[in-house]
Amino acid sequence: MTEELLIGMHNFLQPYLPLLNSHNVDYLIRDHWHTYVPEWIRQEERINLYDLFEQRYQECSPARSLLEEFIDDIIVWRKKIEQITYTREKFQEEILLEKASPKSYKCISRTFMSEKKEHEVDILAPVINQIANIANAESIIDYGSGRGYLGVQISQDYKRNVLGIESCEATVHSGERRIELLSKYQKESTNDPQYKTTSTIVTSETNFENLFYQTFHSHSSSFLLCGLHACGSLSCSLIYHYVEKSTVHAIVNVACCYHLLEEKFSPNPFTNRCNENDPCSFPLSRRLIAERIKLGRNARMLAVQSFERNKADQTLNAGLWYRALMQVILVEIYDLKSGLDDIKLGKLNRRPLTFEEYVWKAVDKLKLDKTKITANIIDDYWRRYETQHLQLHTFIQLKVLFSSLIEMMILLDRLLFLQESVINIPSASSYLVALFDPIKSPRRWCLISIKSQNL
User: Residue 106: which pLDDT band, with cuts at 50, 70 and 90?
Assistant: First the structure.
């Protein structure tokens, strides 16, 4: 089922990959509207693709136009995905055999976490504890632990030994300071013997038993590996350790930063090389490797976008519009013809800016000649292109309609890899679960696998 779904979904996506790999910042200078957007979308006046998608999702009526046929095709694939994945509630009731747990951490007024992170930890910590119980895992290893938000919560709430592995020492020290603040605020000891961190890089040779003993000075013979928004190939590394090491009884992994993945058959745009020999590069599954499936970096970057979160955004993609219009100025005023892909402006200011303010900040950041541009010139560009703003919004909506399918290509490939690994884990049970609120936490999918011989 998973294999057939992946192949069919890729065949559907294939004609749209040029669109999905287009650079949003080049929208105006490359005329993306006429290059990638079909005529039957361009002719619609002020269409809101998000609203149409939701309307068609609820309806069962025949399509009345090419646009509705297109939307319906995407909905078909979305519903097929729903058939082989789980909502959090369904997973709790059918697999964990209990209803969704209440708030996991103790009733304290401060957690030193953002609202988003608190939402994620609140849901994920009890799930990990439940999976560890099912899998008979003695200890938890938090893979790419960051500041220890998840690991600390698990150790405090469930009295489990948790080893946080984080390659960046500065992040480890930041996490230690957070624990001190948290302990001081709760008026408890700053020494939590059940949560410890180590700054190391995990390789295929890493022995978790030895690493655990070196850190805790006690033995543990079975582990659950978890990762909350493990970046890039880190999630794939976690999966390989699970498949190849008998001491790893389960994994609970929420992935992130798909654009940082390498691909076997699509070249990295910065090195211009494919990574066929990298076991952690996409795809992982034998079937997709045999088909030489590829996505592309920009398509993978799109995979982190949430339809629900983008629909809730009322700014009409103002930030992207500013950046696309700035690209025109860089080409026409500053004559930048090469190296445009290397220009990273990022978020120039947290508060809302007018376009003129944005341009001046961009010129400052790029150290460009301020005498080449004036307020009148900036205003002229704004007036000249203003009517295309809504077209850009529609263009972004069109791409975001595909985002969940791209993400599923990556995540279902990992699920299929686990299903193919019958020699190493013949009785494993694997699940893909939508754990988080997609508006609060767009990267909400969790890959869970339990070696059934440990039940």
Answer: very low
- CB of 431 within 8 A of CB of 91? yes
DSSP string, 219-230: ----EEEEEEEE
Local structure of 256: helix, strand or coil: strand
Q: Are 159 and 278 in contact (CB under 8 A)?
A: no
Q: Could you give the CA distance from residue 157 to residue 238 in angstroms, rounded to a whole number? A: 24
Range list of H helices, 194-268: 208-216, 234-244
Rounded Cα–Cα distance for residues 426 and 419 (Å) = 9
pLDDT digits (tens, 9 = 90+) for 238-266: 999 999 999 999 999 999 999 999 999 99
Contacting residues for 346 by C-beta, under 8 A, at least 6 apart: none
Question: Residue range 147-171: average pLDDT?
Answer: 93
Amino acid code (one letter) for 96:
L
Contact residues for 416 (Cβ-Cβ < 8 A; gap 6+): 2, 3, 6, 284, 285, 287, 288
Q: Do the beta carbons of residue 249 and residue 223 sit within 8 Å? A: yes
CA angle in degrees (0–180, nearest 5) for 92-97-98: 65
- The dihedral through the CA atoms of 238, 239, 241, 245 has a sign that is positive
Task: Tokens 């703003």: give the residue.
Answer: 389
| Global pTM value | 0.93
Q: Which residues pair with 253 in a beta bridge?
A: 227, 447
Contact 263, 248 (CB under 8 A): no
pLDDT at residue number 110 = 60
- Between helix 66-84 and helix 49-58 the angle, nearest 10°, is 60
